[in-house]
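Researcher: I'd like a candidate sequence for this fold, 489 residues long. If you have to choose between options at a position, lean toward the conservative one.
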């Protein structure tokens, strides 16, 4: 029998236009209640209602709400036809799910509504994404056989999108590019006109970012290219540009960088360049982080959300086969300190705290629901360990920090290293199957998925800190989150 994924793939474009969103909404309605009961579902991290999620897309604040779109393959938890799913929120704590915002239903995006971004102009919200096309035939899909089109859509309510327009095709990209050019990120340049960056793989096997300029968000002209003198990976995905206290930041996700034990430990990297500096700084030293996007909140804060996953990672993010896979990180506030970017959970997150739990003499607590927060500040010991559940261990020895899994809860994850000059504080967010570790108030972050079977979160802190707190994280987010699974159409 054919799967829903196969049926969706086989639909003609005109049928997709009429039926695909409805089909996905019906699929969600049928399967989401079951998925929602699964043991590894997080409580305050965004997940796909069913199926597969990857990159956050189109992050913005528009008409009084935050919008979080995401790469979504509803019909299979192993990843399939890519669409944009959509959550919105008044406060980044309580979310409404709006169903699918954009489906692949034109010749120029038929093989996937890939990643992209959002920008407001006047009263309207515009989204830009990559329309992925795979031609039939004998192709390597790098030098031939792939279309990577920049597509624009617009909306007056942030929920319904119309007027799909193809803005750029491969013919418009510079000669030195392969067919891999993608993930448009829009922003307003210093001169008040629009800019768009696109990630690219050059023919000389080098990652780069193309920079386009536009005055009307319709016509775009190439303005330049960012790359390194020596190749740093063959492809740069998901570029982003913004400023931190006068420093120009270019974020990219390089693929093809040689892996090491202390740096670049994952298969693909994600980090940022500061203008005038040569080295990429990694956003996250954990096992599961990729394709982040930033946006500006109405109060001026720069907020980053990442995908808590990595493509082709080689370890499992759906070991229990629960019918869904992957989640996003919590929104992180970025600040410029000590000549680098610190990332810290948005301050709103503390509102999710439930009760405070007092540890026993051995520094142990058991948090019900596997959802909690551990904060150790003014750490006095050069060495220490935090045990999370049966197998997750966070250790520090002077400035060297490791996040490791000592049993099968890591589902193939072993150890990741990070370095600071001295560990002064640690804040750990645990949400059922995801852990985010913030060292020194966000100087270094380590994100990982893990999969415990026991119902409570056993935590043990070994070390000395002037301030040590354990909080349970409550279900407020959850209530709104699961209240309505209906699609909008
Ligand atoms: C990053 C990425 C993007 C692409 C999207 C497709 O994870 O490969 O470059 O647009 O995922 O889902």
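Model: Candidate sequence:
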């Amino acid at each position: 029998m054919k799967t829903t994924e196969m049926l969706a793939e086989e639909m003609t474009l005109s049928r997709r236009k009429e039926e695909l969103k409805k089909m996905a909404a019906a699929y969600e309605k049928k399967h989401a209640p079951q998925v929602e009961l699964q043991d590894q579902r997080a409580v305050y991290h965004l997940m796909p209602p069913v199926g597969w999620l990857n990159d956050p897309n189109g992050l913005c604040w528009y008409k009084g709400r935050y919008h979080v779109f995401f790469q979504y393959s509803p019909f299979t938890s192993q990843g399939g036809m890519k669409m944009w799913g959509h959550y919105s929120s008044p406060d980044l704590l309580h979310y409404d799910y709006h169903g699918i915002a954009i489906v692949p239903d034109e010749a120029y995006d038929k093989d996937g509504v890939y990643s992209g971004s959002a920008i407001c102009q006047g009263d309207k919200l515009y989204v830009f994404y990559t329309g992925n096309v795979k031609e039939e035939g004998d192709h390597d899909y790098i030098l031939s056989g792939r279309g990577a089109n920049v597509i624009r859509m617009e909306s007056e309510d942030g929920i319904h999108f119309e007027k799909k327009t193809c803005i750029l095709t491969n013919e418009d990209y510079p000669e030195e590019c392969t067919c891999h050019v993608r993930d448009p990120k829009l922003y307003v340049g210093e001169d008040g006109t629009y800019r768009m960056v696109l990630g690219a793989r050059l023919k000389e096997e080098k990652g780069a970012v193309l920079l386009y300029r536009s005055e009307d968000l319709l016509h775009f002209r190439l303005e330049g290219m960012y790359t390194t003198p020596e190749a740093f990976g063959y492809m740069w995905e998901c570029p982003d540009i913004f400023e931190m206290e006068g420093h120009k930041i270019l974020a990219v996700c390089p693929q093809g960088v040689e892996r090491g034990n202390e740096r670049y430990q994952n298969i693909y990297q994600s980090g940022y360049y500061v203008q005038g500096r040569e080295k990429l700084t990694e956003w996250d030293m954990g096992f599961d982080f990729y394709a982040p996007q930033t946006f500006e909140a109405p109060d001026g804060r720069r907020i980053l959300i990442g995908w808590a996953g990595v493509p082709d990672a080689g370890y499992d993010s759906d070991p229990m086969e629960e019918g869904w896979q992957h989640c996003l990180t919590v929104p992180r506030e970025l600040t410029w300190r000590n000549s680098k970017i610190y990332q810290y959970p948005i301050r709103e997150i503390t509102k999710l705290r439930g009760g405070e739990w007092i540890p026993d003499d051995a520094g142990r607590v058991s948090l019900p629901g596997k959802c909690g927060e551990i904060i150790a500040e003014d750490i006095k010991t050069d060495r220490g360990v935090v045990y999370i559940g049966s197998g997750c261990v966070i250790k520090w020895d002077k400035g060297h920090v490791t996040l490791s899994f000592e049993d099968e809860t890591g589902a193939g994850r072993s150890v990741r290293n990070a370095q600071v000059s001295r560990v002064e504080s640690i804040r750990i967010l645990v949400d059922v199957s995801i852990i985010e570790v913030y060292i020194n108030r966000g100087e270094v972050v380590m994100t990982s998925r893990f999969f415990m079977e026991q119902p409570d979160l056993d935590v043990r802190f070994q070390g000395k800190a002037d301030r040590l707190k354990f909080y349970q994280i409550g279900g407020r987010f959850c209530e709104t989150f699961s209240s309505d699974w209906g699609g909008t159409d």
